[in-house]
Structures
1.
Amino acid sequence: MTVERITSRKNPFVQHLRSLESDSAWRKEKREYLCDGHKLLEEALDKGAGIRCVVWKDTPGTVPFTDEVRQLVLPAELFDYVSPMKNSPGPLFTVRMPAEPEPVFSCAILLENVQDPGNVGTVIRTAAALGVDTVLLCGACADVYSPKTVRATMGAAFREKLIHCTVDEARAYADKNRLPLYGAALSARAEDIRGIDLKKAVVAVGSEGQGLSGELLAKCDGEIIIPMTPGSESLNAAVAASIILWEMGR
């Protein structure tokens, strides 16, 4: 098993890794994304993710890989230059971006315009933990394959169905799977979440600042609300989605 050593910042592969870290267009073009850390690497191996290369810090690791997986060692300074995390012990690794799955599911959480990578990653992680295997992403959501988002999923990105869609496609997917589509909203018509059966449904959550778009709400079969103490502000998007996911799996 050959392990390559790179020592120059000008090396094309080093520049490739830097682009995977910071450039969503580059990730989409190359169909590849960058991850960091032993925990994520273990999850990727366990879930059969398409690992393309592993980059070690200072010395090679002992994890066995087939010859199809390229392995490299970078000195600490160069590794830190490439890594998306500060003072990371590594390793870094890249994963083949999967084709989007068929939109067939028994329930799903939908995020619209949720732009914070931590929030998107947390929702993906929570959905996996509570048995909702599909996350629909609509509008200007954070890139699910950015290092920050993938790290926040704690490995759930390797096993969840992640499907990007338009508002019209979201409505069509709900109809195809014979599921109602509900929108979480602070409105007079919204019903208490505790009185709605969400076990087989698609539930949409919008950004913390703007909520769901009027276009998406117009496509919904109903609206739901999480009861809160009077005078409370709206919940963080990931927190709201987590409560909804609990109700969906309850």
2.
Amino acid sequence: MSAGSAAPNTQHLTPVIVGPTGVGKTAVAVALASLKRITVISADARQLYRGLDIGTAKPGPDILARVPHRGLDLLEPGERYSAGRFARDAAEWVAQSRADGRSPVVVGGTGLYIRALADGLFNEPVLDPERRERLREWSSDLEAGDLVRWAGRLDAGFPGGGRQRAARAIEVALLTGRALSWWQREARASGVLRPWYIHLTMPRDVLHRRLAVRVDQMLAAGLVDEVRRALDRGIAADAPGLDGIGYREVVAMLQGSLPEPLVRDAILAATRQYAKRQDTWFRNQLRESQVWTINATDAPALIAERIRERWEGRGGPGGPVRA
């Protein structure tokens, strides 16, 4: 296991377990919960939707009964949720966890949520409600690809993403006269916590094999039926929640635009691409002095024990790290 940079000898750091999808973040957090009293703060933009459990790899009832989690099942598919709202909500979850005598541990792969919580978001300008609603009506009629292209034209710093992220970039640019990337750079507020990043990674071929197994398990567990139930409840096919990897491919199949025999490979290809983007983001965006990189091919229990030792100051350089 590669230790990477040691955690700094600083008080009141909060562990933030990050890494690409399928690398084993949840398994490590669950193993850590057997060693320390923790609350898991989920930083996953898909797991917050109720009824979307299989395709988001949401922890099952047995895990949730043993390990307190916050940030799951917050809203219905179709509702919007921003990184700013996550940071505000997570601040309350972190405070409540500490009040309950538990150490908060942030776990997730959504980079913008991690950044919002740890580094702070911009002080958002006031947007005119009527103009905002008219803009939303206009954008709702556009295809996701067209929204992304508009976002790129209006904001040279737009990093890409799905329908919700593109619509947000368009909204801020048109209603404030400045790009969202400008606001994020020039009007940043302070973060909610001081992070100790634990970056789980593994060789790409190993991760790819894990992802293949995960996709097969999701399909076998009823991913198609999960999507069908959401659509039957009146959720729009391109609504937030259903526009994520796995869900959008199944939606395409149910609508007849993707042949059923190709669904599995389409999900796997998109998942691998997403995992690569995540790993690149975490490698490039996290502050190196606060990152400990771990080879996640080791057993989760072993990784959790090493995290506990480092956290409590017995794991080598860096001294104690206290949440």
3.
Amino acid sequence: MVPVVAFAVLAVLSRKDPSTPVEIGTAMQVVDTSRAALRTTEDVTYEDADLELVAAYVIADGAFVDAAVPVEHSSAWDVAARVLPASELAHIRQLNVVTDGPAGTLAMVHRSGIALDQWVLSIDTAEPTSVLEETIVHELAHLLTLRSTDLATTGPCDGVQLEIGCAKPGTPLAQWAERFWTDPTSSMTHDPDVHVSTYAATSVHEDFAETFLAYVTGSYTGDSPTIRAKLAFFDTQPELAAAAQEVRPRVNVD
């Protein structure tokens, strides 16, 4: 593995309430763009001490570079490859297989420390396929809104300051924070009339991703005006609405 190149976690989907805030760190520097580095796995630091790294694989053009991959691991990647739009799949440069047992941390994405706007996707193979499908949709929301063009992690903030960085002016995450959060730098108390899940209350970007998942799956059946407004927000965002339309038939399909 390339040492000390991975930067802090961008986003984690977990059904547990995290005990510490999610941090993003610097994450934007391209530290080594040589051909050798791009064919090498990079280290990732996990905040969850219970999360075990089982294996790491370089991904290129949506496929494993190493052909010797256990079936369980390739099956997890198959879920991501099937659900994600091709445009976003192309930006995944590494798969990390992790585990802390069922119903814990499900998946997460890190910005690569090797290649700009490339990602390390971590998946817990202890989860059933249906759970992983929905998890990948949640992560897709992060892939579409935490790019270098959307979120700055260094320098002064001319947009909306979030816990994990600066949402640039006019970006979907900045609009979301301005419309639906009173203090985008901290968590909120969970309110079922405001948040589609407990995890959504932990931060602006997790609220965004959890609500995007509900938008894709149609899982929210309540009548909260706030949540309905949040769901309708995605209809005003062409890239997100198009991504949702593309992946919707690929999720919760028996």
